[in-house]
Every structure is written in structure tokens, then in C-alpha cells.
Amino acid sequence: MILIIDFGSQFNQLIARRVRESHVYCQIVPPSINIKTIKSLNPEGIILSGGPSSIYGKNSPKIDRKIFDLKIPVLGICYGMQFMIHILGGSVKKAQKREYGFAELKIKKQEGLFKSVDKKTACWMSHGDSIEKLPKGFTITASTKNTSIAATNNKTKRFYGLQFHPEVHHTPKGKNMLHNFLFDICGCKRTWTMKNFVKNAVSEIQKTVGIKKVILGLSGGVDSSVTALLIHQAIGKNLTCIFVDNGLLRKNEAEKLRKTFGQHLKIKIRFVKAGGKFLKALAKISDPEKKRKIIGKIFMDVFETEAKKIKGAEFLAQGTLYPDIIESQSAFGGPTSIIKSHHNVGGLPAKMKLKLVEPLKYLFKDEVRQLGKTLKLNDEMIWRQPFPGPGLAIRIIGEVTRKRLTILKEVDAILLDEIRAAGYYRKLWQSFAVLLPLKSVGIMGDQRTYENIVAIRAVTSKDAMTADWARLPHKLLGKFSNRIINEVHGVNRVVYDISSKPPSTIEWE
Ligand code: XMP
């Protein structure tokens, strides 16, 4: 495994992605990690990440200098390189001006990190300070016009430094450089595969849980579904899933889930139909945050009542992913890492005195999808677009009523049908319909109508932090409008949302 020390760079997750894509396991840890823990993790190499600080800054992050005595290869990137050079006796000069963007890298010798890399190649720079003097044993291995020490190494000690970012796409040969580090310099093996992950995770779960019972809140999304499959593989019938049908799901969604899990996968699952309870509690409520709170509370009540029926349950399984953990652990090394809990079950473990099992907590979303494939989850489930916990309640602007819910479910089903048929479902991060609390005048046949308006939202995104409205073909937009107005009673106007996030959000509420 490779250890990545997090000095706060916005590109840290990318470094980890690149290493994992190369089938080498890695973990991102804060610089406060102690040497004993590092030794116990037994890494084959250490990557010191970039970061926004200057090593002269008052609170600049630092890691114990003993890591340089471990005889493990170290790759410092940007701030990570400056930190290494500074601590080993070199000097870093404060820059007058930041260097940002593309630069041409001139490589001295095609060896080490630069084996099989062209002597002239582009690299992506983003730094203020630069190296002024190298410590004993280090040599310059590459330069750019503005940065004479753009790369350096101490071959004997296997310490390498890059002033630029090999992990970003803008450094086209960055991947080769990282491969050289992983395989030639650290001697890593390509052992990180989902098959191996399953083997290890299953034995880990068995060790943690033993013969005790586990409960899991199934939402129908890919994360909780994959968690269920993995835990089922480890402990079989000692896993019970609880699926709360809150009546706010897409059309036929609950039935589909019942089919996938109940028949095909033979997992013990309790379906609780609670739509009536949710609708009753939501009556006359228009405020989005109030809706969320009500839905969260009813969910907890229903889930807890059901979970109490499972005698002897000691564990609660959750589909927490790695980005949640990375984002909540402090880059500068807070002593604890606070883990964000799942929207739907937050607070339950403490309330019910359950211990947590989170087998996906070191995986990225695309790895979870690969894992789903390895565990033979069907494609439809694997590629499901994200769906919010409060469901259609936050896509019905204003009050949620049974009638409005029925209208939105029909509209949404037609929309997804057309999006799938046009081959857009997987290309879009999310696509859905929103029912507005407004009516507009229309004409159907010879009759004047006064009916509902729906808005269509389709966005592309990588992580939901930012999103762009999808440039769908006009012909497809036309199909949405024709089918929806013709087929759904109570809708006479369809509009398309052309706002990006920020400044808008993906959901309307
Ligand atoms: P926004 O609307 O903030 O949404 O751009 C970002 C992502 O989060 C989802 N979302 C939620 N998910 N409970 C959830 O489980 C919620 O209350 C909630 N609100 C928004 C949204 O669908 C998008 O993927």
C-alpha cells in the first residue's frame, strides 16, 4: 500500500484515484499521523501531497521527520517536495509571483520517475514558493523556464520531488511518472482488484461481527445495495435489511427493489409500507427544511420500531464512502476524524446503541460500482442516478398531497423512459421532474385548460458540488413535452431548467 500524507491540496483525492486506478491500494492520512502507526501500516511508499501553505507560514502542516529514516521511498509533490527539501537541509525561497498553469518540462535523464517519458513534456504548475538550494545528495532532474528545480531526487535514499502536479490531466505524462514511482521505485504489485477487496472485506466483516446480527437500511441506491450484498456474502442470514417505503419514491421503484433483492438475491429484507404516515405528517407543510425534518424523524421512528423486532441485533451497516471520510477529516490533522453519517439513518446508531459496520468506507463511487459488478448486482441498480432521501417531497414545490404525488410520479416516469430510450441516462448525473405550485392557461381540443406546470431538470456533474444543465437535443425536449402533456392528466405546460450550480442548486428545494 501507498500512504498519502494530506497537506491540504485540492488534488489529494485525484492522487488517490490515480494510485487506485493502477491497482495499488492507498490511504490518505493527516500529517498528524505518528511514526508507529505508519510502521504498522507497512507502506511500500509515501506520497507527500501538495497544499495551499507556504512552509514559512505559521501554521504550515508538518509530518514527523522520522519518515525519512524509514528507508521507504518518498515522493513529494509541490508543497510536499518543498517540505521534504526544507526539512532535509535545503532551502525554499519565497516567490515574488505565483506560477500557475502549463509549463514545458525539460527532463535531464529518462530514468527514475521519468523512465519512458519524452525529454520535453508539458506539466501543470501551481505554486508560490520555489526550491532555492538542494540538500546534500539531491540533484536536479528537470527544469522549466521559470523554475530551475522543477524536479529533484536523491537516488540512493529513493526520495523524489516534483514541483508540478503529476496527478492532474494537464500533465499528460503524469500517469507514467506515478507508475514509475509505484512499480519501479516502490516495487508495488497490482493487487488492488475488486475480487481481492471482496475476499478481504468478507473476512474482515466476519471477524468484526462474528455470529452477531446486523441490520441495514436499504434505500435502493447503489451504496446501500452494494453494502447489503457484501455483508450478505460474509454473514448470510444474520443480515436483515429494512426498506422503508415512504411513498415518496419514483413510480414502481419500491417494487423493482423488492424484485431485485427479495427474489434474485435471497437477502432477508423487511419491507415497511409507511407512505400514509409520511403523507399525513407532511400535510399543509410547504417549507423545504420542515419537510426534510419531518421525513427524517418519521423515517427514524419507523426504522427503529422495525429494527427493535430483530432480536439480538448489535450492528448497523452503512454505505459510507471514502470521500465522506476524507472531507470530514481535517487536512491539518485533527485528532479525530468525524464521519458524516448517512442522511437517512444519522443518529440511529447512538440512539439504538448499535455498533457501526462500514465496509465501503475506503472506496470511491466508481469503485463501488465496480464492486457491485463483481457482486453481480444488476446494471440498472449499479448505474442508478442519485436520489435524495426526502424523495419526491422536495420535488413537489409547496404542499405534498396524494394527488400531486401521483401527477409527479407519472411525469417523472415518462421523462426517465425517454431519457433511457435516447441513451442519456448514464450520461446525466441526475434527471428528474419538478411539480410547481402554479397553474397556467392552455388549450386542449377546443377547451380552455387551467392546469399544472412541470419543470424538467437534467444536469451533468462529477460530484454534485457543481453541476451544469444538460444541453439535451431539442428533439428530445420536444418529446418530453408532447408525451407529458398528452399522457398526464393535470399538466398543460412543461419548462426546461437552464440553471447551473452554483448559483442554483440541483434540487429545487
Ligand atoms: P443540491 O440540491 O444541494 O443537491 O445541489 C446536491 C445533491 O444532494 C442531493 N440532495 C439530497 N440528498 N437528502 C439526500 O439524501 C437531502 O435532503 C438532499 N438534498 C439534496 C441532490 O439530489 C444532489 O444529488
What is the structure about, briefly put?
With 509 residues, the chain is α/β, with parallel strands linked by helices. It has helices at 12-21, 35-41, 79-87, 174-185, 194-209, 222-235, 253-264, 275-282, 288-308, 322-328, 348-351, 365-374, 379-382, 402-421, 474-487, and strands at 2-5, 26-29, 45-48, 74-77, 91-93, 99-107, 120-127, 130-133, 139-143, 151-154, 159-162, 213-217, 239-245, 269-273, 313-317, 355-357, 430-444, 447-460, 468-469, 491-496.
Please describe what this structure looks like.
By secondary structure, this protein is an alpha/beta fold. The chain folds into 3 domains: about 1-185, Rossmann fold; about 195-380, HUPs (Rossmann fold), CATH 3.40.50.620; about 400-495, GMP Synthetase, Chain A, domain 3 (2-Layer Sandwich). It is about 35% helix and about 25% strand. The protein has 15 helices and 20 strands. The protein has a 9-stranded mixed beta sheet with strand order 2-1-3-4-11-10-9-6-7, with helices on both faces. A 5-stranded parallel beta sheet has the order 14-13-12-15-16, with helices on both faces. Strands 17, 18, 19 and 20 form a 4-stranded mixed beta sheet that branches. Strand 10 and strand 11 (about 160) form a beta hairpin. Residues about 330-345 have low confidence and may be disordered. The protein binds xanthosine-5'-monophosphate (XMP). Xanthosine-5'-monophosphate binds near residues 292, 343, 389, 505 and 507.
